[in-house]
UniProtKB/TrEMBL annotation, chain A:
The keyword Glycoprotein does not apply. This is Cytochrome b. Residues 15-227 form the Cytochrome b/b6 N-terminal region profile domain. Binds 2 heme groups non-covalently. The chain crosses the membrane at residues 45-73, 93-118, 130-151, 157-175, 196-217, 249-271, 315-333, 345-363, 375-395. It comes from Sphingomonas aurea. Component of the ubiquinol-cytochrome c reductase complex (complex III or cytochrome b-c1 complex), which is a respiratory chain that generates an electrochemical potential coupled to ATP synthesis. Residues 230-406 form the Cytochrome b/b6 C-terminal region profile domain.
From TrEMBL, chain B:
It comes from Sphingomonas aurea. Keywords: Heme, Iron, Membrane, Metal-binding, Transmembrane, Transmembrane helix. It comes from the Bacteria. Its main location: membrane. Residues 62-171 form the Cytochrome c domain. It is found in: Membrane. InterPro entries: Cyt_c-like_dom, Cyt_c-like_dom_sf, Cyt_c1. PANTHER family: CYTOCHROME C1, CYTOCHROME C1, HEME PROTEIN, MITOCHONDRIAL. It holds the Pfam family Cytochrom_C1. The chain crosses the membrane at residues 253-273. Gene3D superfamilies: Cytochrome c-like domain (1.10.760.10), Cytochrome c1, transmembrane anchor, C-terminal (1.20.5.100). This is Cytochrome c1. The keyword Membrane applies.
Length: 429, 282
């Protein structure tokens, strides 16, 4: 893997040499995120988000493990045990708010990471596998976040679980049986809470495993870059360390700053007040809404209000899952050989519309279901599917891309004005 | 081939959505949604201007103590506070001895078991007890309150939008008022039912709680503050802000320190970044 000019790990210290012979972990790190991994020199800040997602996962795992030492997964006491964490556990409030807001930060970072992939065509050959594994990670994250939200056993936990598991009952014939089997009962209760806790603890480690594959797959072709043009030679790359470790540190700082502001000064901003009311199967909240990061998908679900061959509810569920599953096919839906949207004027336009479309879906997902909002949601859902399934395949065939730069270095130098040989020489060290 | 299949699938989704849109629009035109009294007459909370509000908020301990007095003398007759223990009162400025005395003199006793006979009984509260519920169970609570259940107040200010201001407004001056004549005129079906009370801050306008604060001077403050109706409402809102988020002050302090620390980190990281990339155009 990697490029022929990649630096080689040569331990000088006897101890490190000894370790390299027995168990070459330092070598692995050196080649993965050290000086041994050559990376395009022109990456912008959008390339920080993969590392930020990794950091967010780390934060979730650490805070989560400590929370689990104090949490009790039993429907009778779960809510109270969380209040115990908030009041009586040393720095318990910090752990809980860090974990709850950490989930939001994680999803935020991953959404930007995905948008980066869409914009710069990182899902295309030769990085299809990186993308596919990414979508698997995204699905696992959604499942983890959903089950985590059930654990405090507040009103939204309970009714969210009720609604989400209710999707399965839309499946013809066997749906209800599947729902009851998944929940371990007719409604969410102790059995459901216990299995959700078990899986919520397990899945982050599965995610960590898939991330290793994700990065492994990435390191075979190496990172894409804002021009989308392949690396042509050594002058196009810099070693990951120290160049991108330094840049990632800046991104990490900004991420931590935003995280701290949220956690310490507005920890309930993204939560729902109803989740501070203990779960009560006999009292349905006025509005059941999921966490903000699920709202666009919730809006798609709610937009299917008419029966057509299949019942409306089944269409909604199919569309909601379909809206994510179609990402698996993206590398083949887009046949344009040009990666970066910077050189694809039409695709770029439609992609920017999609961005606003998803934000609109998010708004509709959380808003009251009156006629105006339902219609907005239907239009926005329509665009979502049309974008990926109709517009993208046709645009990628018909559009005429703008001329690509000859190489990454050429693009960099053009940005800095002029391409005299002296500058090329300077730029290539 | 891919293009043909994806176009068909796309058209299926878009087509069903178009159909759904058509029916939604048709329905909206034929049966416009009826207006609801809650929409038109519900009021957003008034601002209690508590010192705990805002990014650097801290508790005004004397106010929180006054609010505790209001809770003790008025609200505790119906509302429990089950996540708060007497010992926690030390955090709002009571001494160890005061806390013991408060627990010992609390009117409602802790459920307990007679050590000799094993029969259910009650005992005096101690500092480590949580506040006891005024009712033995939900049935008793409902029986005493016209079949409504007074909710636990420990988390109330976090369990409602804009909670502190909400509690202040809900029990503050002028919240309980005669139902406006326009409302009954426009929505004859929405007349406040017998046993409920009109209160425009409550989500559905008609609340089962009888007005808990009714006149100035209902509570006699030991610190000499004039106990106007709104003052008592503000103070109890301040107290309930503390019960819901007792660690608010340490959180703000830790946040302040963390933000400064991280800002310095950002600054250093930025410097290192500039330095490392100094000779490489990118
Ligand atoms: C737990 C969540 C995730 C973690 C920790 C993670 C981590 C990473 C890391 C460290 C990189 C390399 C740095 C970068 O290019 O930003 C990367 C690249 C990439 N990721 Fe992820 N990722 C996650 C989720 C996803 C998801 C959900 C997708 C898409 C559905 C995705 C798609 C990609 C792609 C296409 C690349 C290659 C980017 C390029 O070279 O331009 N990732 N990921």
């Amino acid at each position: 893997m990697s490029f022929p000019w990649a630096k080689h790990y040569e331990p000088k210290q006897p101890l490190m040499r000894w370790l390299d012979e027995k168990l070459p972990v330092p070598r692995l790190v050196y080649n993965a995120v050290g000086a041994g991994y050559p990376v395009p020199r022109n990456l912008n800040y959008f390339w920080n988000f993969g590392v930020l997602a990794g950091a967010a996962l780390g934060i979730q795992i650490i805070t989560g493990i400590v929370l689990a030492m104090h949490y009790a997964a039993n429907a009778g006491v779960a809510f109270g045990s969380v209040e115990g964490i908030m009041r009586d556990v040393n720095a318990g409030w910090f752990l809980r708010y860090a974990h709850a807001n950490g989930a939001s930060m994680f999803l935020l970072v991953v959404y930007i990471h995905i948008a980066r992939g869409l914009y710069y065509g990182s899902y295309k050959a030769p990085r299809e596998m990186v993308w596919l594994l990414g979508v698997v990670i995204f699905l696992l994250m959604m499942a983890t976040a959903f089950m985590g939200y059930v654990l405090p056993w507040g009103q939204m936990s309970f009714w969210g679980a009720q609604v989400i598991t209710g999707f399965f009952s839309a499946i013809p014939l066997v749906g209800e049986t599947i729902r009851v089997w998944l929940l371990g009962g007719y409604a969410p209760d102790n059995a459901a809470l216990n299995r959700f806790f078990s899986l919520h603890y397990l899945l982050p480690f599965v995610i960590a495993g898939v991330i290793i594959l994700h990065i492994w797959a990435l390191h075979i072709p190496g990172s894409n870059n804002p021009t989308g043009v392949d690396v042509k030679g050594e002058q196009d790359t810099v070693p990951f360390h120290p160049y991108y470790t330094a840049k990632d540190a800046v991104g990490l700082g900004v991420f931590m700053l935003l995280f701290a502001l949220l956690l310490f000064f507005s920890p309930n901003l993204l939560g729902h007040p109803d989740n501070y009311i203990e779960a009560n199967p006999l009292s349905t909240p006025a509005h059941i809404v999921p966490e903000w990061y699920f709202l666009p998908f919730y809006a798609i679900l709610k937009s299917f209000t008419a029966d057509f061959i299949l019942p409306a509810k089944l269409w909604g569920v199919l569309a909601m899952f379909g809206s994510i599953l179609l990402l698996f096919f993206l590398p083949w839906l887009d046949s344009s050989p040009v990666r970066s949207a910077n050189y694809r004027p039409k695709y770029r336009g439609f992609l920017i519309v999609l961005l606003f479309d998803v934000i609109l879906l998010g708004y509709v997902g959380g808003a009251e279901a009156n006629a105006r909002n339902v219609i907005l949601g239907q239009i926005a859902s329509g665009y979502y599917f049309a974008h990926f399934l109709i517009i993208l395949p046709w645009v990628s065939r018909s559009e005429r891309p703008r001329p690509l730069p000859g190489s990454i270095t050429e693009a960099v130098l053009a940005k800095h004005g002029g391409t005299s040989p002296a500058q090329t020489a300077l730029a290539s060290n | 081939m891919v293009r043909a299949i994806s176009t068909l699938v796309g058209l299926a989704f878009v087509g069903v959505l178009a159909l759904a849109l058509f029916f939604t629009a048709k329905d909206a035109i034929q049966n416009p949604a009826p207006e609801a009294a809650e929409h038109e007459f519900h009021l957003h909370p008034r601002d209690a201007a508590l010192s705990s509000a805002g990014y650097f908020g801290t508790f005004d301990r004397r106010q929180v103590q006054r609010g505790f007095q209001v809770y003790k003398e008025v609200c505790a007759a119906c509302h429990s506070l089950k996540y708060v223990a007497f010992r926690d009162l030390k955090e709002i400025g009571y001494t160890e001895a005061e806390v013991k005395a408060i627990a010992n003199q609390w009117v409602i006793e802790q459920p307990s078991i007679n050590p000799d006979t094993g029969e259910a009984t009650t005992r005096k509260n101690v500092a480590s007890d949580h506040f006891p519920s005024p009712f033995a169970n939900e049935v008793a609570a409902r029986a005493a309150n016209n079949n409504a259940l007074p909710p636990d107040l420990s988390l109330m200010t976090k369990a409602r939008h804009d909670g502190a201001n909400y509690v202040f407004s809900l029990v503050g001056k002028g919240a309980y008022r005669p139902q406006p004549a326009e409302l009954v005129e426009k929505f004859p079906g929405a007349k406040t039912p017998e046993g409920l009370h009109y209160n425009p801050y409550f989500a559905n306008l008609n609340i089962a709680m009888p007005p808990p604060l009714t006149s100035d001077g209902q509570v006699t403050y030991t610190d000499g503050t004039a106990a106007t109706h709104d003052q008592m409402a503000k103070d109890v809102a301040a107290f309930l802000t503390w019960t819901a988020e007792p660690k608010l002050e340490s959180r703000h302090a830790a946040g302040f320190a963390s933000v400064i620390f991280i800002a310095i980190f950002c600054f250093l990281a930025w410097g290192a970044y500039q330095n490392v990339w100094r000779d490489v155009k990118h």
